[in-house]
Design goal:
mainly alpha
Length: 218
Amino acid sequence: MNSIIEFYMFANKLKNIIRTGWLEIGIEKERLESVSEHIYGTLILAIAINSEYQLDLDMYKVLKTLVLHETEEILMPDYTVRSDITKKEKLKMGRVCVHKVAKNLCEQEQIEKLLYEFSTQSTKEAVFCHLVDKIECDFQAKMYDLEGVMDYDKTREDLAYYGNRAEEIDNNSKRASDFWIEYDRPKYKNNLIFKTLIEDIKNITDEDYQKIMKIGAC
């Protein structure tokens, strides 16, 4: 019982950790997305995508990975493109954090293996989860943009961290969320589903948004 209680109390912290990217670009909204809400978003997208395409994936493994994929952020910062850290350093730090959080669970080794697969994208389920994780963030950016709380100039400041792709991204970004979408676009180029989905997300208009939200209202 102690291991269950300890693991839950650790994980519960993610409900109150706000996603760093939204803070960095100054989203002007009273309540911003927490890490746990991002996790919920990835689950919803994974279920919806699998529903429409009936992918040859172990969906239990997919959903378990997505539930746990931000476990490292219980103990370490939510690093963004603005963070001064290499992928190798982040991976090493993440493994240490996951070990500390899961160390008293009987499934500790399985959890660590699952999250290492996610970090290294070494299985087809891990690749899918990685793409879902990225596109959920881009979709949330688009949602904030459509809500009118994402500032174009503040988001454009990220260009300073985009290296030699900065000019290309700037030229293809007409709205605030476009900067994030265009930055991540190459990640989806080898997967037709995600390549098409990110384009459709980018092309959602204010009129589309109002129409969809009106249909969803009670």
